[in-house]
Amino acid sequence: PLQIVPFCGHIKGGMRPGKKILVMGIVDLNPESFGISLTCGESEDPPADVAIELKALFTDRQFVRNSCIAGQWGEEQSSIPYFPFIPDQPFRVEILCEHPRFRIFVDGHQLFDFYHRIETLSAIDTIKINGDLQLTKLG
After folding, report:
1. Alpha helices (H) in 22-91, listed in sequence order
2. Is the pLDDT of residue 1 over 60?
C-alpha cells in the first residue's frame, strides 16, 4: 500500500550508529522537488530540530542537504557525483547512521556523507517526507 505524502512517522528508539532508514518510492512524472527529513520530534512551533534534510531539486539537478538547530539552518551542502533521480522511475534511498555521520545511498550507490550536527542521536526520532513522489516502502 502506498503511504500518503506528506508523510510523518516515528523512528522507534531514535537513531543510533548502525541503524538504517530505507525510503523507497516513485518520482512523479513532472517533479519539482521532494524532501526527506530526520527530525527531533514532530513539533512545528517551535520547529523541531532537523538532524538532516535531503532535498532533491529537479530543475537544478541537485540533491542538497542541511540541518536546522534551534531554528537556525546550517550551511547547505550540495556537491554530488551525479543526480540519481529520474521522473516516473522508482528509487531507493538508504540513510545509514554511523558514529560521526550519516551515509546516504541511492539505488545501492553511496552518494555522500553528512556529518552529524546533532550530537544526541537518540533524539532523532521522526521522519518526514514530502514533495513530488509516491512512497512505496519505508523501513
Report:
1. none
2. no
**Tell me, what's the pLDDT at 45?**
85
DSSP conformation class of 71: T
Q: How far apart are CA 94 and CA 139, in angstroms?
A: 9
Q: How many CB atoms lie within 10 A of CB 65?
A: 23
Phi-psi map region of 123: left, alpha, beta (phi>0 left; psi -120 to 50 alpha) = alpha
What residue type is assigned to position 102 of the chain?
Answer: F
Per residue in 36-87, pLDDT (tens digit) is 999 999 998 889 999 999 999 999 999 999 999 999 999 999 999 999 999 9
Q: Set out the domains of the chain in order of their start, with CATH numbers.
A: 7-138 (2.60.120.200)
DSSP secondary structure letter of residue 59: T
Residue 96, helix vs strand vs coil: strand
Calpha distance 120→131 (Å, rounded): 28
- The predicted-structure confidence for 94-110, as pLDDT tens digits, reads as follows 999 999 999 999 999 99
